[in-house]
Amino acid sequence: MGHGVQVPAHVLDTSPGRAKNSASFFCFFTGGASPRENLTHMSTKTDRYKRLEGGVPERTLVWQLSGKGFESFRLEEIPVPRMGPRDILFRSDTNGICASDVKIINQGGEHARLKRYDVARQKVVPGHEASITVVKVGPEADRRLKPGDRCIVQADMLEHDSAVGYDVWGAMIQYGVFDERVQRYLIKVEEDIGYSQASLVEPWACIEASYERADLQLGDEVVWVIGGGGPMGQMHALRALSKKRLGRLPAFHTLLVTDVSEERLAAVRSRFEARASEAGVRLVTLDPTRGGFDERMAAIAPKGAAYVIACAPSPEVVLASAKHIRRYGVLNLFAGIKRGTGQVFLGDIHYDQITVTGNSGSRLEDMEKMLRITERGELDTNFSAGAVVGMRACAEGVKAVAEGRITNKTILYPQLPDLPLTRIEDLQDRVRFSPEVAAEVRAGKWSKRAEEEMLEALLPAPPGGGA
After folding, report:
1. Contact at 8 Å (CB) between 162 and 181?
2. Is residue 19 situated within a structural domain?
3. Helices 364-375, 201-209: crossing angle, 10 deg rounding
4. Which of 142, 179, 235, 237 is the most exposed place for a label (fewest CB within 10 A)?
5. pTM for this predicted structure
């Protein structure tokens, strides 16, 4: 099955229009090594893990939702799901925890995607930012797949009106089964990138897909990310700065990030002040609930913001921002605003010539495009990693996302049962990293090498021996 057209790295979008995109700006200046980096000496336990040695256990840990609310979200130990002839058995290596997981847990069977699904009887297993390894392939399963293949999952299976992590069990399980429907939405990982890097392709694909119909323009001066202190807002900020650094946005001079959390705004300043300065962009962070916000906005963007990305799921907040969008500006509705909510002033949009676009996910071709960009080393998705968590503490990781306690993405490692929720910069207290990696981890930088050293230290010894 085709997965869309790859955009070569050398192709540049030279038109002033918003509709065209290019993969070239993804040469992100994250300051780290290529995601293709490898440990010179692969240690035994990690090597055995990658080669699928040790066999498949009889039972698996799984997080199941049986109702509404965190009290209905429980860790269970069940027999490894049984394969049919058309199924594959997979090992879940990593899964990014998403705000969508919080929404599923809070709404349960009232979630729009679950209204025809018996949550109490069939259970929901969240987890759609999945990086998996194929363990077994049924005789009638997709012939593209074989044991040892690494894949990511395009969760939204449009032709089936179904989605992985919703009405199809997702990756918050150690070992699971995907049927032929899901197999058509698996994309093979072709290069030796990290497990977390593969998982983080999914949210980055959502970011890029949101610009498909209305991208930043050459003349845009002020870019505003509303609710920009969280993981997805930071991705939007990084995207804009990267395009500026590569000469794609010559007029861009101010990046405004607003958020009601001072902790998140401080994290934005820590991560982006130097990068913005290097790109020739002024970084401004504001709490819109503090007095004098409109006056500050008038001083920051006298003509209004050229491009506004709404990462706050509040119609009232988004509508209040409209008066600060310049004529011919763009409003990119990225946050999960509830369907049927929010007033739309069509006359204002018409006469101010504002473009409004929205996005709530990605397509198969978006996922493959972002995966290949990552594999080529043009984007290190690990920039978005902020914390890691093992299987038993997964609920704590989801709650931390719900409460905004982690300012970047939290990565679940299902095969590490006892790893508590830990910020990247605090991991050195739990893992003895090599000196070079330890310095990066102390600075909050996650990498393939750090992941491999953590797995080597924390993976349970496989059955039958082995270090």
Report:
1. yes
2. no
3. 120
4. 179
5. 0.86
| Residue-level length of the chain | 467
Q: Over the stretch 342-364, which tens digit does the pLDDT of each residue have?
A: 888 899 999 999 999 998 889 99
Task: Count Cβ atoms below 10 Å from residue 358 Cβ, excluding itself.
Answer: 14
Instruction: Identify each DSSP E strand in 127-205 by its residue range.
Output: 129-137, 150-153, 156-157, 162-163, 175-178, 186-188
Residue 138 forms part of a structural domain: yes
Average pLDDT for 128-146: 97
pLDDT at 414 > cutoff 80:
yes
User: Which neighbouring-strand residues pair with 309?
Assistant: 225, 332
pLDDT digits (tens, 9 = 90+) for 218-269: 999 999 999 999 999 999 999 999 999 989 999 999 999 999 999 999 999 9
Distance CA 162, CA 245 (A): 40
151 contacts 141 by C-beta, under 8 angstroms: no
Domain boundary among 304, 334, 358: 358
What residues contact 147, with CB distance under 8 A and at least 6 apart?
52, 134, 135, 136, 137
Q: Is 44 exposed, middle or buried (0-12, 13-18, 19+ CB in 10 A)?
A: middle
Which domain CATH number covers 322?
Answer: 3.40.50.720
Residues 136 and 234 in one domain: no
SS3 content of the chain, % helix, strand, coil (to 5): 35, 20, 45
Q: Show the tokens assigned to 12.
A: 């540049």
Taking alpha carbons only, the member of 125, 172, 127, 123 closest to residue 153 is 127
State the greatest distance between any 2 C-alpha atoms of the chain, in Å, as a whole number: 72
354 & 254 share domain:
yes
Phi, psi of 248 (to 5 degrees): -85, -20
Percent of the chain with pLDDT over 90: 79
Query: CA–CA separation, 289 vs 286, rounded Å?
Result: 9
From 316, 332, 358, the end of a domain falls on 358
CA 396 to CA 210: how far, in whole Å? 30
